[in-house]
Amino acid sequence: MAITRLHDVAALRAWRHTQGQDNRRVALVPTMGNLHRGHLALLDSARAHADVVIASIFVNPLQFGPNEDFDRYPRTLEADVAALEDAGCDAVFAPSERTLYPHGRDIAHIHVPHLGDHLCGADRPGHFDGVTTVVALLFHLVQPDAAVFGRKDYQQLQLIQRMVRDLHFPIRVIGHPIEREADGLALSSRNQYLSAEERVRAPALHATLRMLAEALAAGERDIDAMEARGRALLEQAGLAPSYLRILSPDLQDPEIPGEVVIVAAARLGDTRLIDNLMVHV
Ligand code: PAF
């Protein structure tokens, strides 16, 4: 069936009303477009938790810093809508900035305290407020029963779960496993910024996380030394690490034995890459 294209709030609300009248459960997949296999896989999780799936496409200016890639972020709306339709997505909400932020960018925002202060939040001041604000707005407009996010943006997922808990959104937040290239590189729209030479180096990020996971599994417990070794390995591979941490699933100091998450961000030329790996130790 042809995908329903929604560009303004009135049309979205009318569509949502119809789904409710027909007792259909709705799952939302929020995206910034430029869809790849990783985004399309999110639709599978959405479909498993709902009767109808709506994706949103919006390159959200609030979550980009002044020196970040908002202007050059790839915008490929027609190809994205075609890919969503091929993948069986029922509807797409693709608002303009004027539709979503009719009163400009200096608007009420959602701030989740503490959790966003470190890691990507320290590297990108204001980024997570931009994310939680647009996601809250999308939740408010779409009123989904479930929403699916990729686990590559691990800290983002934690923040959204916290926001949903704190603000009593009646929405089930689902984290979808990271989709990877054959050499381990996590799929990301930003991978296309990599030069051919950088693309060869980029899998070092995932390889380093795996090496640390194996060291943990082999019984190594000196977390500080392991983090330092991981950062040194990234540097040797030509990446500039912003952080590499071994943390608990809620991004605090780890408790071992138990579940840990190894999180890292690194720059490769002009491209910022992030990745993470959950390990049970
Ligand atoms: O993960 C993303 O693509 C974005 O941060 C999101 C959740 C769509 C909000 O703009």
What can you see in these coordinates?
The protein has 281 residues and is α/β, with parallel strands linked by helices. It folds into two domains: 4-176, HUPs (Rossmann fold), CATH 3.40.50.620; 189-276, Pantoate--beta-alanine Ligase, Chain: A,domain 2 (2-Layer Sandwich). It is 38% helix and 20% strand. It has ten helices and nine strands. A six-stranded parallel sheet has the order 1-4-3-2-5-6, sandwiched between helices. Strands 7-8-9 form a three-stranded antiparallel sheet, with helices on one face. Helix 9 packs antiparallel against helix 10. It is globular. The mean pLDDT is 98. Bound molecules: pantoate. Pantoate (PAF) binds at residues 30-32, 60, 63, 131, 134-135, 153, 156.
